[in-house]
Amino acid sequence: MQTIQLDTGVCRLGAMVGRCEAMRVVFDQIRRVAASDVTVLLTGESGTGKELAARALHDCSPRCDGPYSAVNIAALPDTLVESELFGHAKGAFTSAGANRCGRFEAAHRGTLFIDEIGDLVPASQAKLLRVLEDRRITPVGSNDAKEVDVRVVTATNRNLEHMVASGKFREDLYYRLNVVAIRLPPLRSRREDIRLLSRHFLRQSCEANHRSPCEPDERLWKFLESYHWPGNVRQLRNCIESMVVLARSTTLSVDDLPAMVRTSPADPATQVKLPDGLTLEAMKRLVVRQMLYRFAGKRSEAARSLGISQRTLQRMLKRWEGDQFRTEGGSQAVADSKQFAFTGSAP
Question: What pTM value is reported for the model?
Answer without folding.
Answer: 0.73
